[in-house]
UniProtKB/TrEMBL annotation:
Residues 9-158 form the Thioredoxin domain. It comes from Lyticum sinuosum. Transmembrane segments: none annotated. GO terms for molecular function: antioxidant activity; oxidoreductase activity. It comes from the Bacteria. This is Thioredoxin family protein. InterPro entries: AhpC/TSA, PRX-like1, Thioredoxin-like_sf, Thioredoxin_domain. PROSITE patterns: THIOREDOXIN_2.
Length: 184
């Protein structure tokens, strides 16, 4: 299947609340992941080669964002019954292997992915402190090869935290499609 691209940011979209189970067996809501300068919601999974290629970079960027008071959460909305590598138990392994210091949540009903109109894994959504979508795009320009020259997500969220605007071209994230349940 060819890779998909994330959709352009929908100006005026406010983050929708959720209550999802983390790999640490605790529930998280939007208020639990907000940073004083904004937050990022990333839709990822365990089996996608695009996510695998950047997982350690996701972890590093989440830590860098935390230092500027930007919260970070990752959500796995894939159909884990059809794609067992994306199961809850495998999420724990994937997070440990990639040094995730942020909450990694399961969206077993896929309702949160639907509300956010997540398209691919990875799909990054950056919100300001009021919950307004300011960025939807790629993590960086490194792609699967890892040669990073521009840290798009970090730079965008740094701008959002400083002056509530992103003033550079936004490129879509590219990855595997969200694996929707057959009855969805």
């Amino acid at each position: 299947m060819p890779p998909l691209s994330s959709l352009p940011a929908e100006i005026g979209f406010y983050a929708e609340d959720f209550r999802l189970l983390s790999i640490n067996n605790t529930y998280f809501s939007l208020d639990d992941i907000r940073g004083s300068n904004g937050f990022v919601i990333a839709f990822i999974c365990n089996h996608c080669p695009y996510v695998k290629a950047i997982a350690k970079r996701i972890s590093s960027e989440a830590e860098a964002l935390a230092r500027i008071n930007i919260g970070f959460v990752a959500i796995n909305s894939n159909d884990y019954e059809s794609y067992p590598e994306d199961s809850f138990d495998n999420m724990k392994i994937f997070a440990k292997d990639n040094n995730f210091s942020f909450p990694y949540l399961i969206d077993s009903t896929q309702s949160i992915a639907e509300v956010y109109q997540a398209v691919c894994t990875p799909d990054f959504f950056g919100f300001n402190s009021k919950g307004l979508l300011m960025y939807r795009g790629r993590l960086d320009d490194g792609g699967k090869n890892g040669e990073v020259k521009k840290r798009d997500l970090y730079e965008a969220m740094k701008m959002v935290s400083n002056n509530n605007i992103v003033n550079f071209d936004i490129y879509p994230s590219i990855g595997c499609s969200i694996k929707w349940k057959k009855n969805s």
